[in-house]
Amino acid sequence: MTRHRPAGAPAAVAVIISTVIAVGLIASPALGAPPEGKGGGNGKGKNKPTPTVIETTTPPPTETTAPPTETTAPPTETTAPPTETTAPPTETTAPPTETTAPPTETTPPPTDPAALPAIMAGVGDSITVAYDADGSGSYPQYSWSTGGSSSVQSHATRLRAAGASDLVAYNDAVVGAQAADLAPQVNQAIAQGADYLTVQIGANDACTSTVDGMTRTDEFSASVAGALGTFADQRPDAEILLTTVPNLKRMWALSKDNGWARFIWSIGSVCQSMLQNPTSTTTASEERRDAVQARVDEYNAELEAICDAIATCTFDDYTVADYQFTSSHISTFDYFHPSVSGQATLAAITWPYSAYAG
């Protein structure tokens, strides 16, 4: 608070003046009251009375001393509250739970990058071609085996990430191919100099117009064994990955209650040995579906035996056959082939069985 001059000062001056001036003169008016805001009293200049005329030589004693009550500012505000001087410690350290990213599908480079293939080929049917994966037709960029799309992370993509940066990948698969069609594809891969061969075959051998039209198991086995035996003879240092046929009955079960899927299956004559009358619960329909799946299981058992007989062949240990895929893994264009998500899943679950997975 601003200090004020004592209120008795004007009266003292008046005494000195009155001593000098002759007695009897007419009294002069007293000094006016201090301007508002500079008087005594309550310190705000509003309550001090204004004197009119000095009648005596002695000023009133009551105004000689200013009230002391305002001379010292209240001490309560001199120190800021200490409670805010230190920030709360609870936020000084970031939570540690986010310091490590979750593990991903990245593949560390093998210890010997020179052992990686320079050329690979994918053979088989429409699954490897990525048929109907993202529309009608073939989309080889989404192939689980040789595709280059980052959304799939194919075997080719993983090999390049592991160090085979100059890898050349050929997709020799053919839409609609059966086991009997495998030999020409394998011969093409041999001519291309493939060091790594992926094989996915068998769905079309079971998916025919009728149960009686399915490829016999012994014929299926002979076709696959002959083709892969030729590849192993011609490319003795090349690696083979042989994958199993997906569960066709599961594919039926996932979409049988979808009206649009049933319509597509009907007008497209899709895998009628399994998908004909998809909502029928008759004994004949159930037995038909079971017969188709039983044939697929026989094919897969033969694939295991074929691969065991070839030193450079790796079997997927029924990973594809046993995988519990969902509707998101199936194309919405035919409700039969893998979608882009399905292709990515095929790549992910089969890669650990590749000779180059490390």
TrEMBL record:
InterPro entries: SGNH_hydro, SGNH_hydro_sf. Pfam families: Lipase_GDSL_2. Transmembrane segments: none annotated. Residues 48-104 have a biased composition (Low complexity). Residues 123-344 form the SGNH hydrolase-type esterase domain. Gene3D superfamilies: SGNH hydrolase. Residues 31-115 are annotated as: Disordered. This is SGNH hydrolase-type esterase domain-containing protein.
